[in-house]
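INTERNAL AUDIT FORM
Audit reference: QA-55
Scope: verify that the stored structure record matches its stored sequence.
Auditor: D.O.
Record contents follow.
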Amino acid sequence: MDGLYVGVAVPGDLDLIISALGHGAYFQDRYSRQCDGAGHVLVARFDGQVVGAAYLWLAEAEEPELRAELPGAAILQRLEVLDGFRNRGVGAEIVLAAEALSAALGRPYLVLGVSDQNRKAIRLYERLGYRDWFGRTIATTREVFHPGGRSRRVPDVCLIYARRLDGVAGNASR
């Protein structure tokens, strides 16, 4: 898609991301984590307008299965694309940017969790070379944010899709 750019968020981006996509407490928390070196907020712009975002988690995975099976993996979280820009390649470009950044950081895998009911997302990830790592849902948690910035973790289950980043340009672990 000509005119689309995906990069790591900079200080002025946070308000634009929240204005476009909502989820203010979530993106504020993740940008704070970015400032602490725990990950990166990725922002997609089309002709300068924010049309999507995601968070690249670089801390150790919280789930024991992920730590055991996919050590050192980067985890892509909360991939969001504006309604009018879905099915136009924005989500794919965010995933590809996350792969490139993860590979440049020497991460062996990019991992993401997805509901087994989210067929559109699953098709996208499979088209990009991801595979269902465990072949079943696994117990995870998700963070629910409340007004005022408070959050709590709640149980969840999802499929874990992963892609080895050996062939991705910039991977130091090749």
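Auditor finding: record pair retrieved intact. The chain has one domain: 4-164.
Action required: none
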